[in-house]
Amino acid sequence: MDIGEPAPDFVLTDQNGDRFTLSDYQGRRIVLSFHPLAWTSTCTGQMKALEEHWQEFDSLNTIAVGISVDSVPCKKAWARDIGLEMTTLLADFWPHGAVAQEYATFDAERGVAYRATIIVDEFQRIMFTKRYAPAETPDITEVIAALREQELERIEDIQVPKI
């Protein structure tokens, strides 16, 4: 996916059985945190980082969600086990990895998502994308910096009327 490209809309079910539709969040930025599978140490660290920074995301008009091919019951049990209370985990279970495929983050050989972060801006366009090595935990400070940088660019673009 290229920066500035429209983000494909999707509907997935979260760990609580609720529907999450990307287009319902137009006007907010969304961090799509793709991870291969629940219950692994790197994926756990990746999701805990989202949870630890949820207030900062909220202050930046951003929602961070985790996405993998795991099922809803698996996501629910994992969220409970690792203590997630604010972070939404989405099940890209069936059709298997369809959202990961749309976002070019699906590893067809292994049948799981690549570890990747994609940020969708408030206008539903891709504003940031990065793929990581399988054992590499995404740098959450880099993600937050990208969000802040875009916010500063928008502020600089605001025209102040002359009096």
From TrEMBL:
Active site: C43
PROSITE patterns xref list: THIOREDOXIN_2
One Gene Ontology MF term: peroxidase activity
Domain of life, per lineage: Archaea
Matching Gene3D superfamilies: Glutaredoxin
Keyword Oxidoreductase in record: yes
Segments forming a coiled coil: none
KW Secreted (keyword) present: no
Assigned keywords, A-Z: Oxidoreductase, Peroxidase, Redox-active center
UniProt xrefs under Pfam families: AhpC-TSA
PANTHER family according to UniProt: THIOL PEROXIDASE (PTHR43110:SF1)
Protein name: Thioredoxin peroxidase
